[in-house]
Amino acid sequence: MTEPLITELFTEQHAYVLFVLLSSIGIYMMIATQNLVKKIIGLNMFQTGVFLFFVTTAYVVGGSSPVIPPDGSGGPFASPLPHVIVLTAIVVGVSLTAVGLALTIRLYNEYGTLRADALREVIGDE
Amino acid sequence: MSDILLPLLVTIPIMLAAFPLLAGLKYERAGWPIAMVGSLVVAGLAALLTWEVYLEGQSTGEQIIHELGGFPAPRGIELVGDGLSALIALLIGVVSVAVLVYARKSGPQGNAFYSGYLLLTGGLLGVAFTGDLFNLFVFLEIVGLVTYALIAADRSGKAAYGALKYLFLGTVGASLYLIGVGYAFVATGTLNMLDLQSALAEVGYTDPLVQAAFGFILVGFMLKIALFPLHTWQPDAYTYAPDSVSAYISALVSTTAAYALIRISFDVFTVDFFAANPLIADGVVLLASISIVVGSLLAVMQTEIKRIFAYSSVAQFGMIVAAIGLTSETALFGAVIHLVGHGLMKAALFMGAGIMATAYGARTISQYGGLAKRAPFTSGSIAITGLALVGIPPSIGFVGKWFIALGAVQEGSWGLAVVIFVSTMLTLLYVARIIEKLYFDPPGDPHGAAHDDHGDGHDDAVDGHAVADGGHAGDDGGLTTDTQTDGGSPAETPIKPGDSPEQTAAVSGAVSREMLAVVLTLTLATVALFVSADQFAAMLDPVFGRFFQ
Q1: Which residue range forms the structural domain that includes residue A87?
Q2: Is the torsion defined by CA of B491, B497, B501, B504 positive or negative?
Q3: pTM for the whole structure
Q4: How far is B408 from chain A (nearest CA, A)?
Q5: I need a labelling partner for B536 at 20 to 30 A (CA). Which of B11, B47, B344, B485 fits?
């Protein structure tokens, strides 16, 4: 009973597996590493996993890209909405990375370290 | 006609945000007037909208809906205004004007700050009005991004650390919310809130996909609202941020996130979802109750004033989220009042703490010893607002807590009622400590003296401070001197942490009369709003009629 389900998971729904893997690895990286730049990379990876999930939901078997000719023929088309969403979310993600890196640079200039544990010690965070 | 107010409220501050930087190329001090114009317009339009919604509520009780770009609803994005969002918009307008008046003297200076300030105002209003789940994500991230930048606006290392910590956790929160939205989208194929309401009901509230969607959205918002154990970003962010920024974000950022959670819980998932999943509803109440108790306990344990207020926010937002899990009309009514009340109280408290810090260098409880004599108005404000936070009538803090507790009792949730009572006692504990230090500790007490070496050079500036607070005798003379200091404002320098003693002493003039006036006005407002329950009811009745039909 479970065997076909698992097969199906890896043959037809591998994108979802990838989404979970990417997000988990990203969030683990963010928590486990002490290097601020690597933390930001982990954060990006986590977000990329989420984007992948959205792109996957747009997929239609045999669907072409949603550019509809004037006579309205053709189809089936992939759903354009998740693509738009992911585009917007990528822009948001890029700006977040920029702000994060800017703050990291300032921290480095101020304290001369990129390690979160060292910073915590210097700043006296509980 | 009135639906045009909604897009105006969102776009005006965002578009104006470009101008402080542009004008800054030519005029160095152009930022503040532009930001003030933007905030006043926002406050005015929000008041107009509130009035229209109020009238509408009397007659039809319909929502005000604006389709952006004329694209009709499920595909286009809608802005929706009703009693609830109008109240939040009014709070945003009032607080942004108040904090801006305060920020003129206290800083952070610079046109970039005012650009960020307007952008944040626009983002918050977007969260308040949007009728689309993904659009909500975008506005949440606008708010988040600008908040991270503003926290670090005074360029200190500690502030950058607090901001970066907030950035990591805030982004994870927003991404978790986005996953939840994705699940809801997969289940229904729509992102419009009103559309989702019926679509989710069709899919079925016990569908695992729908449950998971709510779970992700809840955890995402818990991070944004800062509920225990996901609150760890908040004390650092509030403590290390410049005082005016602390006041602004503590009053509005978590507040709009909590508002969005209320909106999604009741407008998208509806009470039927909670009825179908009692475990989820109980879980929300349980998590929120833990947050109330732990937040209060952590607040009692702190010595730094801003940190006390930050942890107190964890507890207060616990109450608001608990009311969501209760799905009781009375409790939710209290939650909305508490949302508004907490915003006003925290704005006043953080600005009061800011005045104490700028004028007397007092940032910890022990440094507050005997300050009431030197700063009667600020001390009075902190004391009154603090007592309002405890929930002592007459104040808006009492009204909010009262209705939440009443709702808990009505629903037979005695555990929550006890938790609220215990937290009230704990709140009294930390507020009473502050009041006791302010009023009943002599200025020259051993604790105060022991801490004097931390605040070097403040003694030299005592005279200036007393004048700055406008009240060593509460007379006009003090105020006149103050005006003169005010006139000399171009000479003001932005306050940087770690300044030499001489500079710190010079900073005493940085407390202006309008800063004091703002804190006093907000304090009076929290007291005066004690009688506002009927107005709140008139605004919220049509909304709750929809929520609890």
Answers
A1: 2-67+75-123
A2: positive
A3: 0.86
A4: 34
A5: B11
